[in-house]
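FAQ: What does the model actually see?

It sees only this:
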Amino acid sequence: MSNMEETMMFKFGADKKRAETVIKEVCAAMQEKGYNPINQLVGYLLSGDPAYITSYKDARSKIRSMDRDELLVELVQFYLNQNKL
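And it is asked to produce this:
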């Protein structure tokens, strides 16, 4: 059986609290500047382009300090926990 037919298991070692803090701080900075944080964050996560994130309050540096995969894991875990899945 080829590797493409096997389920891959991903493990991320990100500190959950750190990811949560970064997401909250970055979204707050974007809201303060008048941006829609959901649209901006999705644009960044899909493209990897840091221009989606404002540099206000060092938000761009904060978001880039974490791997995008780690941020996605935190967001999916939060969603699943909220919806009891």
